[in-house]
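Minutes, project check-in
Item: structure for the 360-residue chain
Input as provided by the requester:
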Amino acid sequence: MADSNGQSLAILDDYLSLGPSHFSPMPNLPTTSIPATISSYPSPSTLSEQVSRLRPYTIISSMRERTPFPASLLSQLPHLRLLLTTGTRNASIDMSAASSHGITVTGTTGAGRSDAPEDASAPAPPKGFDSTSQHAWSLILALASRLPDDDRLLKSDGAVWQTGTSVLLAGKIFGAVGLGRLGARAAATAALGFGMRVVAWSENLTQAKADEAARRFGLSEGTFRVVGKKEVFEANVVSLHYVLSNRSRGLVGTEELGWMKKGAMFVNTARAGLVDQEALLEVCREGRIRGAALDVFWEEPLGKESSWRREEWGKGGRAMVVLSPHMGYMEKDVMRNWYAEQAEEVERFLGGKEPKFRLN
């Protein structure tokens, strides 16, 4: 599996086979693609399976948080020396454990190779725009305009026509749970693009910080109004833009969902662990909100027996549910640049050079 220099690369969780072409120009680096993801929350049995399949490799290319690397896994990978991830942080990698085992962890900025010709890397989007916020609004509009349901019904029933009503967003309240870079962009779109009023909450958010975020989009102070947690969940659209941590895990539970209005929409493009899954399932089954739109899940890929896949949402009094397979970051140019940056890090590693973007 390793070459004469003892190096070998495993590409994990590359569902669309985008990575191999970036690493193939390295002829002396045996490369194996392992697209199937083992459970995101490994039990002892799946940990053993993970160790078995990853133990031979000196270099591993991972994609976001699809495969976690806790200390219990890293301690059993004695050959691993370079762990590549994407983005500027990865909470599913135990950085301290990686350092203690002599494993370098690198990330990506999305800018592409530093040594590429000017026209070789995919162009960066204009400052302040991103695919995740765009996707959040795709999900919001899908719920507000019933697009998935109406599309499915028109294609499956030759007699069906109008079966429900849409929601006009203008004048309604957009509740941003988290007002960082992504939350502020989504909030600005609500205000500028749809004429919505914006309220925002996070544990340490102040009105001064919210006003600063508003000014970045040319909006006046007070456009993003900081409120208490209860009031943000009383908005017509509640959209999560929060970082998952030990403190924020389970941030949204029975109480918070109970504050939502009957016709409200709940959208999560952040992390599933922020939300109590059973509490959200109960709210949707009982039709206590208009609908939920989810891009992130408690197990990824989403299991075939998951209630989110199997229940007949939007029927029998149930809420509408719109699902997407964690597509918020799956933008063509971003993915291309990420793998190009990973390939450059591998070349630097094999050449004995310092990494460009080290995380530990």
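Outcome recorded: Residues 332-350 form the longest helix (19 residues).
No further action items on this chain.
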